[in-house]
Every structure is written in C-alpha cells, then in structure tokens.
User: Fold this.
Amino acid sequence: MLGVMSVPDALKRAEEEGLDLVEVSPNATPPVCKILDYGKYKYEQQKKAAEARKNQKTVDVKEVKIRPGIEEHDYQVKLKNARKFLEKGDKVKVTMRFRGREMAHQDIGMDLLKRMIEEVSDVGKVDLQPKLEGRQMIMVLSAETAK
Assistant:
C-alpha cells in the first residue's frame, strides 16, 4: 500500500522496480493501480479463465423418439433412457411422430406423454409442455435442479 499518488510518480516508481503499472480498478475513486509484472498477470488471468471453462457443465439436449402405438416394453426402454439422460443433467426432447390415421388419435399420444411426465417427475421437470407441431408432438424435459 503506497497510498494515493500522481500518475507520473507511480510510473517512475514502477520503472525503478523494473515492473509495470497496471490499473486493476478503473471505476474506483481514485483508480486503483498495482505495480507488477504484466506478462505474469495476463498468464494467471488466462489460467483462471481456462480453469473456469474446464469446470463448467455443458447441457446437451438428448432426443427420445416414440410412436403412439408403442408397446409396453419398448416404452419402458425409452423411459429408462430418458431417466438416464435426466440423471446425467441433460435435457430430453421427447418426440412423438404420428403417421397416417394416427393423426385422428392425438389423445392417445397426449396420454402417453403425460404418463411419461409422471414417471420421470422424481428426476426431471417439464420445460416445454407437449404441443403438436405438424405431424409431431414435442415436449422438453430438464433435470431437477433442487435435490
């Protein structure tokens, strides 16, 4: 702590020590500066940024495709996969495709998606409610954040 001093005095002092004068808090009154090796400072900042990037979790969107006439065992396999994705922290996009006359029975598809919501409610929550887009009914589930 050298106290408040003029810029030329601070620059002279930094030059005497063979270091750089670095402004660390320009918005403070008066601005805060440090006498240090700027190259080393930049290197440490890069290391901190790289460490922060390494520790962040990316959230992927996994897709589970089903049909309205899906059999029970196939449904259980798809449900197990969706639960596994949610437990890993990924989002799950559930897509139900209707073909031909299945479009007349959208209620069957909606019931199936609501059943899936109930069965994964302990590990995930609904981000996007089931809605019909053309010949597909889509919903998005995400991992439960509060454990």
The radius of gyration is 29 Å. DSSP finds four helices and six strands in the chain.
